[in-house]
From TrEMBL:
<dbReference type="GO" id="GO:0000785">
    <property type="term" value="C:chromatin"/>
</dbReference>
<dbReference type="GO" id="GO:0008270">
    <property type="term" value="F:zinc ion binding"/>
</dbReference>
<dbReference type="GO" id="GO:0007064">
    <property type="term" value="P:mitotic sister chromatid cohesion"/>
</dbReference>
<comment type="similarity">
    <text>Belongs to the acetyltransferase family. ECO subfamily.</text>
</comment>
<keyword id="KW-0479">Metal-binding</keyword>
<feature type="compositionally biased region" description="Low complexity">
    <location>
        <begin position="1"/>
        <end position="25"/>
    </location>
</feature>
<dbReference type="InterPro" id="IPR028005">
    <property type="entry name" value="AcTrfase_ESCO_Znf_dom"/>
</dbReference>
<feature type="domain" description="N-acetyltransferase ESCO zinc-finger">
    <location>
        <begin position="55"/>
        <end position="93"/>
    </location>
</feature>
<keyword id="KW-0539">Nucleus</keyword>
<keyword id="KW-0131">Cell cycle</keyword>
<keyword id="KW-0012">Acyltransferase</keyword>
<keyword id="KW-0863">Zinc-finger</keyword>
<dbReference type="GO" id="GO:0061733">
    <property type="term" value="F:protein-lysine-acetyltransferase activity"/>
</dbReference>
<dbReference type="GO" id="GO:0005634">
    <property type="term" value="C:nucleus"/>
</dbReference>
<keyword id="KW-0862">Zinc</keyword>
<dbReference type="Pfam" id="PF13878">
    <property type="entry name" value="zf-C2H2_3"/>
</dbReference>
<feature type="region of interest" description="Disordered">
    <location>
        <begin position="1"/>
        <end position="50"/>
    </location>
</feature>
Length: 281
């Protein structure tokens, strides 16, 4: 028998390794689980490399994600979007000087400045609710009230010409030594509509029923300075509006309606009317 050459021995060893199946669960180092040599790369339908995806937000049920409305400036923005948050911060800051100036003007109109106006209700602590109109008292109270209208629209994120309120019932809450802290504007109405329940996740209801219902008192706007909220100012103004709108008649809650409210206004209407489907007009 002739001796085996080194080359033949190496060839035989290689053949034995190739013919022996690998043990279960074993794969060569560096190979993917699906077999084949090297690491595969995802490719798109055109044959090029797949798109580079970036995770922008992680939603784990946080309450500060999604579309929100700022109660201070009225801007609607996406709380989870960094660019939106920056734009909101700039917009909010730009409105502060105007709001501060209007607040100063309202505070300057102290309680003593409104003693000549018609008082519809007075309280033991010196607070009063006064009614103002363009012709009453030579129009002085109405000119002062225009500053309140500007402040109110600034905080509610709305814009209305002050003279548009001239035919409505305008009530101002005068707090002793603090000046004007609240305003309610109401008007007579004949019909209103019931709000439908808000959709899941929404801050307020936005859709109304199509069936008209009888109504008498329309609350066009109600506002309270931020530092005096949750002290009964808005509720007291609403009660006074229902009492003063018609001579000798107290409008019942069931015939009181609001204009399309903001989220905070919707919550106020629900609390005041004791229903989750208030009337709107």
């Amino acid at each position: 028998m002739s001796p085996t050459s080194p080359a033949a021995s190496a060839l035989a060893s290689a053949r034995r390794r190739l013919s022996t199946p690998p043990a279960a669960g074993r794969r060569s180092r560096g190979s993917p689980a699906g077999g084949g040599g090297g690491v595969s790369k995802k490719r798109n339908s055109l044959g090029g490399p797949g798109p580079h995806l970036v995770q922008l937000n992680l939603d784990f049920g946080q309450s500060n994600l999604g579309t929100v409305t700022c109660s201070g400036c009225g801007m609607v923005y996406s709380a989870g979007n960094q660019a939106d948050a920056v734009r909101h911060a700039r917009f909010h800051a730009s409105r502060r000087p105007a709001a501060a100036a209007a607040t100063a003007a309202a505070s300057a109109a102290s309680a003593s400045a409104w003693r000549g106006q018609q008082a519809v209700k007075e309280f033991f602590n010196g607070d009063r609710i006064v009614r103002v109109s363009p012709g009453a008292g030579g129009g002085v109270g109405w000119q002062r009230a225009k500053e309140i209208f500007r402040l109110m629209d600034e905080e509610l994120g709305q814009g209305t010409e002050p003279d548009a309120y001239s035919g409505m019932l305008v009530l101002l809450y005068v707090r002793h030594q603090s000046g004007i802290v609240g305003c309610c504007i109401a008007e007579p109405i004949r019909t209103a509509y019931r709000l439908l329940p808000p959709v899941e996740g929404a801050e307020a209801a936005t859709e109304r029923d199509t069936e008209p219902l009888p109504a008498q008192c329309g609350i066009h706007k109600v506002w309270c300075q931020s530092g005096h909220r949750r002290s009964g100012v808005a509720t007291t103004l609403l009660d006074a509006a229902r009492s003063c709108l018609y001579l000798g008649l107290q409008v019942p809650l069931s015939l009181t309606a609001f204009t399309a409210p903001t989220p905070s206004g919707y919550r106020l209407a629900c609390r005041y009317l004791a229903t989750d489907r208030p009337l709107v007009y």
